[in-house]
Amino acid sequence: MFNIMELKNFLKLGTTLLTILFSYQASAEMKAMTDEFLSGVSGQSGLTIDAEIHAEIGEFAYFDDGKGLALQGVRLSSAQDKAQTADFRFKIDILESGAISWGFSSENISRFEIEEIRFVDTPGLTPLVGHKSMGGFFLDFDIEGNITVNNMQSPGVTGGVYDIDFSIRDGRLGYRTNGNELFLDGMSLDVNSQGTVLGVNPAGELTLALPNFLAELKVEAMRFSDNPNNHGVTADVDSLAVLPSYGSIWANLDLNANLTIKSGGASGSQGMTINADSVINRADVAWGDDTDWNEAGAWVGALGVTGSVDLVNLTVDVLDDPDVGVNNNGVGLALAFERLDASFHIQDFVLGETKQNIDAYVINGLTPVKSIGGFDINLSLADGIYNTDPLTNIVYVQAGGNSNAGYQGLRLDTQLNIIGSANESNFVYTEDGSSLMFSGLEAYVDGDITVDVTAAGNISGTDYYDGLRVGFEDLAFGYRVEGYRVAKSLENSADNVANLKTKDLQAAHSIAGLGFSPSMEGTLNGHITLGPGGNKGQEGITINSDVYITDGSMAKFIQDDGNGVWLSGLNYDVHLRDMMLDVTSEGLSIYEGESWSKMDVTDFRIGDKNSGASFGRLILESYTVGSESIISAGGAGQVCIGGIGGDSATCEADNGRWEDRGAQGITIATTKFFKDNIDSEGKRNRITWETGRAGEGTSAVSNGTGMQLVFDNFTTNDGNDLTDTYGFRSDYNIDVSSTRVLKKSNGPDSNGVSGNKGDEKIMNADGTYSYVAPGAITAADIANRPVGIAVRTRTHFKELDFERINLANPNPGGEVSTLLYGLKLQNFDITTDITATPLD
Amino acid sequence: MKNKFKIFIVCIFASVNCSAEMASINDSELSEVTGQSGVYLSGEVSINEQGGPLADSYFGACTDSAKTCGARLSFQTQESGGWFVIDDIKGSIAFEGLTFQVREINSGFGGDGALFNKAVLEIGMPESIRMNDFEFTLATGSSSRPSDVGYKQVDFMTVEMSGELTLEGNLLVFPTP
Predict the structure, then answer these.
(1) Host H or E run for residue A306
(2) How crowded is the C-beta side of B51, counted as CA atoms within 13 Å?
(3) What is the 8-class DSSP label of residue A205?
(4) Residue A807 near residue A752 (C-beta atoms within 8 A)
């Protein structure tokens, strides 16, 4: 039985809570109260306390079964000068109701800081310089607010009832590793939580209930510094230049949540177990670029978010790394959970919108916004099996990031598993009244993820770039969907998801422009570094990345029986230099300074991904400079298929089929500039197909032993071989939309539904369908045509040159013969408009 | 100055049923196939219906009779030789009922199916194809670009197709590396 004494021990964070004070200075100066200070206190009966606090704590450690998580260099001081005090005023009053009102406010901007977070075996030992650390965090704040402590004996309530209301202004929240910082600057946070209940239930569990939690977060700029002299400053202390920014952040949250904590983790006798559930009544999240928070600048945002999160048995322990050898990274904070179910509905995902319009939309829900549509994301994380591997959900949070980046950093030894065999997990895209479900999502990751804030340079042979570096070390991963389900959407999101689950499963396929594959697996190494600043204006995100996928597979098409079109034996590396993301009024703009990639597919298979018949080996190499993409809201709109016409009448008069795909949807416009090879750097545009290899048709096939057909060194230019300003352009309009589907033969189809050849497929209200003769089609029938994925693609370029096309035998002494000494495509402007629906 | 000899072959398929009698796959030996779970595609492909992006001494707007507005593909089979040219490619093709799926072949084909015993790509021909002024010109050229100084081109023939086609049957693609 969990008794109060145990709870007290628990609140002391386990067996040993040692506070070793290095250079301890704590000066909480209580000052005499003046009448002026007391004037705001009701009935002059309260208490006002002015406190000037400068506190430094050498180490604050949490020990669990003999292993400790230590917060070192903990300090509360002035933000401007860490030698100065953080000043506060507290006002305490007893209200007529008997409740205690505790008001608080800052008298200056304070800083709370943790310089190092380490794992220790013994409390209080002076840490060695260079001993692995997670890095440091700091929070600057100017706080003002009030907590009302209500009657502790409220009937039916376990614990005290607190009404909390506070605001933080001029805040900063930062993460620092190895002298580099990433921080939220100009942060303001408003929190209101009425009726908060904190107590201990009869089972001895600590309980927290937030029945009315409201919060709004505003961040003027998310900044980066690579100058160790800087620490929580807006402008560089040496150059005085304003530090570069990733942009602004805004979030709005209305939720209610419950949380319980009980003693005992997953291992040993100590630790803790957390259960939590929350309902998101409303949330809005947005990222702004070069914004004045009104009409100027543009935002990307998820608006009108609702949902729920249910966390079951999250255990918290301090444990050794279960990995052995070089993969053992010592002790870490082990977070494991039995199950996590999360469902989110995003009413509108906007691209390139002003904050003024977003604010109006949030208030009235009616203001038109540049929306690509809505999303439902349903994820269920639990123990399961992916392929043949048993997987669970556990993350070891360890000290030290990438080994060459310095002693500070964060390492997440991660195993996470999303289950979806019963369609618990899925992803739904809804636009203009039609929905597409990526059904039965299953996914996992298993390996190490490192997080560092790095500065550009080369350390011990590893190239680093400015920004937040997320590294991958032998991270096995995989995901797949069982297929697509499509339907007209229902108003209520829960009903819509439930309705889609009843629809026929259709084959999943890659969607042009999105780069999505229905399945992908492999082992990931490399990094993605997110730096500040974009290609347009002052703010944005700059990405430098080198990622390597090995021993993988990728599906371009999967049927419900698992057969498909597979890229098996996949080795894929992608390199990005100065890829810059900006939000403009057009949408999300992506500029790629330089990018190159190589996709080497051992077997291009049909059928099973491991044993299906193979077309042979395929290698796709790409090298582009200065390429650009813009992702914007809105799809194809009104289109004429098979004819020419700007309206329904003229289109049909030209024997075309008029389709209105609505105002929403996704448009992706890309421009790629394919450049001449740089062999010394492995940069080239080339397509290679190899067949007739040694061991062909077996699992021991030997690449590089067959005959290769090589389309070599293709480049773009403006038709003059002198300039390349037009490039290779592709514009994709992606919609989920109804279309006409005709029966191809007489008699019953694969589902037993009969009709005649040429009859049109019409959906019934209950989700079934029937075939209707062309002469009997009504307006209602047309409104109930099947939903499909409609992609309109316009590809246009002035000139695309292939230097030569070779037949090559890569074996020693093998010959290379040239089939074509040049292949030139000029003045192309091709439009395809294809809608994919289920084959019945 | 272009030396252009045009031969027009105009194929007007006015509701012509192009019954490409690819043998229907009704062989009972194919009965052990995966159920229908592919995709049904409908849509159109249009090439340079409104012209292309190049504007120079050779290419231009479709309204300019002195210029070519279609796409152009050329290739050279001998080093320092001339170029084969498919020129002025334009028009559109609309279709309904093109299907795509993967199916197992484990019988039939005179016993070869059992030996193959793997999956193939099945491309179901669309019932309806409509071609709108689809045309191209076969030619040879003296160099790679028609805008080159001194460029000469000999046009052999122009093919133009318009009308309705009906195609039946399936195309099976057997991977054999």
Answers:
(1) strand A298-320
(2) 15
(3) -
(4) no
What is the length of chain B?
177
Q: Identify the three-state secondary structure at position A36.
A: helix
Written as one string, the DSSP assignment of A546-583 is EEEEEEEEEEEEE-TTS-EEEEEEEEEEEEEEEEEEEE
Cα–Cα distance for residue pair A550/A700, rounded to 1 Å: 17
Contacts of B174 in chain A (CB under 8 A): 613
d(CA A226, CA A454): 7
Touching B: A residues 417-476, CB under 8 Å: none
d(CA B125, nearest CA chain A) in Å = 10
Radius of gyration of chain B (CA): 21
A565/B contact by beta carbon, under 8 A: yes
Residue A608, SS3 per DSSP: coil
Cα–Cα dist A235/A186, whole Å: 12
Is A572 buried (19+), middle (13-18) or exposed (0-12) by CB count in 10 A? buried
- Amino acid B4: pLDDT: 39
Instruction: Work out whether the CA dihedral A344, A348, A354, A358 comes out positive or negative.
Output: negative
Mean pLDDT of chain A: 91
Residue listed under structure tokens 């917060």: A71
Angle at A806 between CA A800 and CA A810, to 5 degrees: 135
User: For A296, which DSSP code?
Assistant: S
Distance CA A637, CA A296 (A): 27
Within 13 Å, how many C-alpha atoms sit on residue B98's CB side? 14
Contact, A375 vs A429, CB < 8 A? yes
User: What mean pLDDT, rounded, does chain B reach?
Assistant: 81
Q: Write out the two tokens for A832.
A: 């395809």
State the Cα–Cα distance between residues A706 and A722, nearest whole angstrom. 37
* CB proximity list for A765: less than 8 A, separation 6 or greater: none
pLDDT surpassing 70 at residue A156:
no
d(CA A695, CA A702): 6
Q: pLDDT at position A820, please? A: 96
CA A456, chain centre distance (Å): 24
Choose among B37, B77, B121: nearest Cβ to A839. B37
Q: Where are the domains of chain B?
A: 8-45+71-173
Residue A45's pLDDT band (cuts 50, 70, 90): low
List, as one string, the DSSP characters of chain B. Answer: -------EEEEEESS------PPP---GGG-S---S-SEEEEEEEEESTT--S--SSSB--TT-TTSB-SEEEEEESSTT--EEEEEEEEEEEEEEEEEEEEEEE-S-GGGHHHHH-EEEEEEEPPSEEEEEEEEEEEEEESSS-TTSTT--EEEEEEEEEEEEE---SEEEE----
Tokens of A476: 């096995």
Q: Which residue has the higher pLDDT, A799 or A609?
A: A799
Question: B122 vs chain A: nearest CA distance in angstroms?
Answer: 10
pLDDT tens column, A387-422: 999 999 999 999 999 999 999 999 999 999 999 999
Percent of chain A at pLDDT > 70 equals: 94
What residues in B contact A833, CB-CB < 8 Å? 43-44
Question: Mean pLDDT across the stretch A518-539?
Answer: 97
User: How would you classify the pairing of strands B39-47 and A389-391?
Assistant: unpaired
Give the minimum alpha-carbon distance from B38 to chain A in angstroms, rounded to a whole number. 5
- Do the Cβ atoms of A102 and A160 come closer than 8 Å? no
HEC-encoded secondary structure of A151-180: CCCCCCCCCEEEEEEEEEEEEEEEEEECCE
Q: What gap in Å lies between CA B53 and CA B70, rounded to an integer?
A: 10
